[in-house]
Amino acid sequence: MEVRARAPGKIILSGEHAVVHGSTAVAAAIDLHTYVSFRLHAPSDNDDGLIELELKDFGLAFSWSSQRLRELFSELGSWSPRSCSTECLKVITSLVEELSFPEAKIGLSSGVSAFLYLYTSIVGFRPGKVRVTSELPLASGLGSSASFCVSVSAALLALSGAVYSDNQQNGWLVMRENELELVNKWAFEGEKIIHGKPSGIDNTVSTFGSMIMFRLGELTRLKSSGPLRMLITNTKVGRNTKALVAGVSERAQRHPDAMAAVFTAVDSISKELSAVIESFALDDVSITAKEEKLEELMEMNQGLLQCMGVSHTSIETVLRTTLRYKLASKLTGAGGGGCVLTLLPTLLSSTIVDKVITELEVCGFQCLKAEVGGKGLEICFN
Ligand SMILES: Nc1ncnc2c1ncn2[C@@H]1O[C@H](COP(=O)(O)OP(=O)(O)O)[C@@H](O)[C@H]1O
Ligand SMILES: C[C@@](O)(CCOP(=O)(O)O)CC(=O)O
Ligand SMILES: [Mg+2]
């Protein structure tokens, strides 16, 4: 039997980085996914007993002898989530160092490490094959690492019997709440390997979907019946979340009082932004006033992200460009390049939207239109 899983990427409307330090943040799923398929090899199917990983988008395939992994790892597969120990991480790092990645794709090594941890922890050493494809740009702030960890964890747990399989139902299905929680916990362990110190917001919104307010591991689903249109601009400047998160923590150690004030301000912005979003209603006559509040809050958050040291000249170029059209923008995700969000007010004409997009694309950026606040993780057994 084969199982497939798909998990969405995300945008952070407010609170990135500060959320790692205990502030409230607001995030929403977007309709760009990572897809994972997984099947266990029948004993006769594969004499070598290989555990295989294919990263189709990159034309890369890796395999490990299950016998060798059994000798290297002491822990047996189990469904209860646990953190990767220092010894285990050393073993994984040396296994990944043996692989050859093209120079430009070296960043994938942390994803492969997370995979090895999740596979050996959840499935154990039973040979099998995992295939991955993604619609998300990697390392751009749209949460590709979390959607990778969520979809891999879900597929592994599903075939290991940890989640209910409704073979009668065709097509994509949503897991039960307690199963989603289990997947989310495992995905968080994978994110720790990729990010170092994740807050958990990315894996949580990828697992549960919708638009959420998140603080210290707790999520609140936001109820909004109004539209929220966002333009996503990918500056195509590559960056690494782990390094950016570590940089903010170092700044917080150098200036504890000032940075605590910044994190408190972000907390207030996220709470106010959530309240505005929840006040949206269908055919809202005061929609423009509410959108103006959102724009101001986004601009304030961007200013504080600059204080944290995670903006970038490419991000500033997007801000200047959209401001010429009186549109507010902020970086999303870890910053340092990556993606920028621009609020597209309800009454904004499509002609203006097209003009902004053209101008941004002339700068060499890529504009994406994505549905915001949609479904989370889904699996499929046929
Ligand atoms: N489809 C994938 N296959 C393998 N690794 C992936 C995949 N998607 C994400 N990753 C891992 O996540 C890393 C990017 O994560 P990160 O720096 O947090 O940026 P973001 O989550 O915003 O895309 C990649 O360098 C890679 O290690
Ligand atoms: C910077 C941070 O707030 C979000 C990182 O998102 P991304 O990996 O850049 O998509 C880190 C976190 O919350 O774990
Ligand atoms: Mg990430």
UniProtKB/TrEMBL annotation:
CC annotations in GO: cytosol
Alphabetical UniProt keywords: ATP-binding, Cytoplasm, Kinase, Lipid biosynthesis, Lipid metabolism, Magnesium, Metal-binding, Nucleotide-binding, Steroid biosynthesis, Steroid metabolism, Sterol biosynthesis, Sterol metabolism, Transferase
Compartment(s) of residence: Cytoplasm
SUPFAM superfamilies, A to Z: GHMP Kinase, C-terminal domain, Ribosomal protein S5 domain 2-like
Gene Ontology biological process terms, A to Z: isopentenyl diphosphate biosynthetic process, mevalonate pathway; sterol biosynthetic process
Enzyme class: transferase
InterPro entries: GHMP_kinase_C_dom (IPR013750), GHMP_kinase_C_sf (IPR036554), GHMP_kinase_N_dom (IPR006204), GHMP_knse_ATP-bd_CS (IPR006203), Mev_gal_kin (IPR006205), Ribosomal_Su5_D2-typ_SF (IPR020568), Ribsml_uS5_D2-typ_fold_subgr (IPR014721)
Domain GHMP kinase N-terminal: 124-209
Reactions performed catalytically: (R)-mevalonate + ATP = (R)-5-phosphomevalonate + ADP + H(+)
Pathways per UniProt: Isoprenoid biosynthesis; isopentenyl diphosphate biosynthesis via mevalonate pathway; isopentenyl diphosphate from (R)-mevalonate: step 1/3
Gene Ontology MF terms: ATP binding; metal ion binding; mevalonate kinase activity
EC number: 2.7.1.36
GHMP kinase C-terminal domain segment(s): 292-345
Annotated family: Belongs to the GHMP kinase family. Mevalonate kinase subfamily.
Protein name per Swiss-Prot or TrEMBL: Mevalonate kinase
Species for this entry: Dioscorea zingiberensis
